[in-house]
Design goal:
CATH class of chain A: Alpha Beta
CATH architecture of chain A: 3-Layer(aba) Sandwich
CATH topology of chain A: Rossmann fold
Keywords (chains A, B): Decarboxylase, Golgi apparatus, Lyase, Membrane, NAD, Signal, Transmembrane, Transmembrane helix
Pfam family, one (chains A, B): GDP_Man_Dehyd
Main location (chains A, B): Golgi
Order of helices and strands of chain A: HHHEHEEEHHEHEEHEEEHEEHEHHH
Organism (chains A, B): Triticum turgidum subsp. durum (Durum wheat)
CATH superfamily of chain A: NAD(P)-binding Rossmann-like Domain
Subcellular location (chains A, B): Golgi apparatus, Golgi stack membrane
Number of strands of chain A: 13
Number of helices of chain A: 13
Structural class of chain A: alpha/beta
Oligomer: homodimer
Helix content of chain A: 25-40%
Distance between the termini of chain A: 18 Å
């Protein structure tokens, strides 16, 4: 209890007011590079205010509101919790809805005790009634290990969960942002992928629960926009990494980092020449917020167009953590896309957004967080990047 | 009441026993060509019986069943009602579940009073508990006019409806057949389409509610198969025509036939050179039953590979109904696939199936039915093709 009060007090001192320039939870010296990048990115308050008036929900007459009320589904997850940090920091009232299947309470515990923050343990597959101005809908397991664990539940989350959140948005007049995925492009026949590309997705494969689920979530979002005049936004998120990623979720960055830290060989599937693009999480969060506050529906690719082969990534991990880390080749899984790289022209032009953090700059921040979580330094682990 | 009793009596006289060679509801002189075709197709009872033992549901111990108990969702619709005719004719106990959004009671009324037939007005978006051995899951509006009417409801029907029926199949140990669609191929870049083609579908267009909905239904079906060991079958149905089609559903065959009968000009969209393949409904029903009774999961293309341009189809309609019918060109809709034609090699080889009814033979049977329904000869309309 005492620690919560202290945390709240620290928070109140650290939190900027909603009207000032957007400070970030990264603003301490610990992550100066990232903080600088985020400052360059910060949304101009003058530009943001008209948007705020526009997206206002059904506020009871005569009540003056301070800041926005924002719902973040999946807000205790990797990306969600970083988004929550930014929203809280700018003075919004944030409600997190999370069933904690892959989310972790530790990711948002530093906000406990803040009256502008609330966490509800709830599964979006069931309806929920809340009063907010904006809904960031992130809830869904996002790594193959997790989304294949119960494919039917994954589809329910994507389709029924999105239906519930769209229904809520319609009811309360909130603006709705869907976090979709580069997986809607499947194993793409076009490279890099632009938003108008329809994709190459296997409808009956073992990854389809996620790919097709997200495609249908996009369809639902557009159908609510067309049919109910709902204000919607669609982001297609490419590979993202950073502090608070699940450690053993089978994704390549978290795999390599955890393996190198544990002195295990880095497992490369296939010949290691398949490529991916890696986006640092603060870049993504900035893109999501710009999309929500802007005028454009989407879909928008949000990703870092820098392209790395698996072997190049392994090299960066070796350079960052352990030059002596061994590489072990294993047979590739059948359904692994050969390459994926976002064309971000649209986001650049319409949102004025592009990623700023290079892999060699972002990776060390993630390594610091992983090291603390893996080796049990629990107290400082969750605040590794917050600097509070 | 009296008429129902008479109908029931007539039915009992007309219905063949389940053990004999499969007779069909088309067996009178009125539709001799089709009847002949169906007889050639009929499933050999000896070949069918092992399948029946194999698919048996959880029968209470010591109870001997006669025939199969079969659920047909969407059984009051165009394709569903023809399937029901065949199943009832071979001696099965048939339950139709239909919300009558596009289905019509008239399509199955000739079975009312038969103890082996039951119709439940129910929407598959809500769960239902029944005890059957097989589930043919056809429920979904299938013409663009209908499925675009309420896109969100269309997705719910495809995803939640399929979930409910898969859940039922799992609970009672029934075999499950999903009727998917050639629309999963979208605007195909491969021609003709084979089952291994992943398709070219717009995830955020106005047709996506149907296309993506059906793709996700296929995913769910395979996920239940992989995860719960459910016996599943997937059919991908190409354009089908025949008696009992909805008259004003905007599909080209029903449009042309209704227009020619009403002495209106036949509306051709675009230059009329886009192609489609047209399958007579009895061919499809035969394919669905072979798929259900056989050993192969699918997906299987079920369609007639004969390819017609819209102008060629208009010519056949002119020849059949009114040589003087005018053709009127209109601007094409944005999302109309340019061509579509099934590769049915897989169904030929694994199900021993191929369509038998040529367009010029099938169309007159549909015209007879449409003429009676359009010009109000209600009494004979619904039994036009049953010959009862």
């Amino acid at each position: 209890m005492a620690s919560m009060l202290v945390a709240a007090a620290i928070f109140c001192l650290a939190a900027p007011s909603g009207s000032g320039p957007a400070a970030t939870p990264y603003s301490s010296g610990r992550a100066a590079a990232v903080s600088g990048a985020l400052t360059r990115f910060s949304v101009d308050p003058a530009a943001r205010n008209p948007g705020r008036q526009f997206v206002a929900g059904k506020v009871p007459l005569g009540l003056k509101r301070k800041g926005l009320r924002v719902l973040v589904t999946g807000g205790a997850g990797f990306v969600g919790s970083h988004l929550v940090d930014r929203l809280v920091a700018r003075g919004d009232s944030v409600i997190v809805v999370d069933n904690l299947f892959t989310g972790r309470k530790e990711n948002v515990m530093h906000h406990f005790g803040n009256p502008n923050f609330e966490m509800i343990r709830h599964d979006v597959v069931e309806p929920i009634l809340l009063e907010v101005d904006q809904i960031y809908h992130l809830a869904c397991p996002a790594s193959p290990v997790h989304y294949k664990y119960n494919p039917v539940k994954t589809i329910k989350t994507n389709v029924v969960g999105t239906l519930n959140m769209l229904g809520l948005a319609k009811r309360i007049g909130a603006r709705f942002l869907l976090t979709s995925t580069s997986e809607v492009y499947g194993d793409p026949l076009q490279h890099p992928q632009v938003e108008t590309y329809w994709g190459n997705v296997n409808p009956i494969g073992v990854r389809s629960c996620y790919d097709e689920g997200k495609r249908t979530a996009e369809t639902l979002t557009m159908d609510y926009h067309r049919g109910a005049n709902l204000e919607v936004r669609i982001a297609r998120i490419f590979n993202t990494y950073g502090p608070r990623m699940c450690i053993d979720d089978g994704r390549v960055v978290s795999n390599f980092v955890a393996q190198a830290l544990r002195k295990e060989p880095l497992t490369v599937y296939g010949d290691g020449k398949q490529t991916r693009s890696f986006q640092y999480v603060s870049d993504l969060v900035e893109g999501l917020m710009r999309l929500m506050e802007g005028d454009h529906i989407g879909p928008f690719n949000l990703g870092n167009p820098g392209e790395f082969t698996m072997l190049e990534l392994a090299k960066v991990v070796q350079d960052t953590i352990d030059p002596n880390a061994r590489i072990e080749f294993r047979e590739n899984t059948q359904d692994d896309p050969h390459k994926r790289k976002p064309d971000i022209t649209k986001a650049k032009e319409q949102l004025g957004w592009e990623p700023k953090i290079a892999l060699r700059d972002g990776l060390p921040l993630m390594v610091t967080d992983f090291r603390k979580r893996i080796f049990g330094d629990q107290d400082s682990a969750t605040t590794a990047t917050e600097g509070q």
